[in-house]
Amino acid sequence: MNYLVHFFLAGDDEELRLGNLLGDFVKGRVERFEHPGATERLRTGIQMHRAIDAFSDRHPAVHRSKQILAPEYGRLSAVIVDVFYDHVLARRWTEFHQRPLPVYTQDVYRTLCGNLHRMPAGVHLLVDSMTRGDWLRGYASPRGIERALQGMAKRRPVAAAIGTAGRLLTDHFDRFSADFDEFLPDLRARSAEFLEKRSVG
Question: Which of 27, 58, 87, 199 is deepest in the core (most CB within 10 A)?
Fold first, then answer.
């Protein structure tokens, strides 16, 4: 659910952006994913999304962040940490990217909206909601994160409890931010390694 982190790691590569978005929607073997306009680079983006998620699940800094939330939210802590890390990235965006966040997010929205015909119909509503609500830029504010968590709680009954987690972001922001600082360089290195192996292969 950490859309901003995934797009950030995809760089300016539109195919990787699309694939990273589809990572939560495409199930099974990626090489079997067929849709009009699907490319090998897009499939690489889907695999990149999965590699990012797998690496994140094992990282000690992410584990520490989850432990802050686990007493109250249990298994849902992983989803909440994803969203909180998007907040840290958005709030401190100028430390990590040359372009201003509003400019960057509009570029991402252009990529998504301009390629809707190349994505399964089930993704269209997400793209519409994300662009109309300007989710990515909204992640920079605690209120934007609250809206994101509450929206997820409404859409997924199994995750209904996470709608109340926003208060912990403010209470423990410095701890989440420190964990993110340890995590992001390792994640960027892992992503670069993944893409290099794919290009060689």
Answer: 87
* Mean pLDDT of the chain, nearest integer: 94
Residue 166, Cβ density class (10 Å: 0-12 exposed, 13-18 middle, ≥19 buried) = buried
Structure tokens at 114: 């301009």
> What pTM value is reported for the model?
0.94
Taking the C-alpha atoms of residue 111 and residue 95, their distance in angstroms, rounded to an integer, is 24
Give yes or no for a contact between 36 and 64, defined as CB atoms under 8 angstroms apart: no
Work out the average pLDDT over 178-199. 95
Element (DSSP H or E) covering residue 74: none
Distance from C-alpha of 42 to C-alpha of 111, rounded to nearest angstrom: 13
Within 23-120, where are the H helices? 40-58, 60-73, 77-91, 101-114
Other Cβ atoms closer than 10 A to 194? 18
pLDDT attached to residue 159: 76
What Rg do the C-alpha atoms of the chain give, in angstroms?
Answer: 16
pLDDT tens for 131-178 read: 999 999 999 999 999 999 988 888 877 777 888 899 999 999 999 999
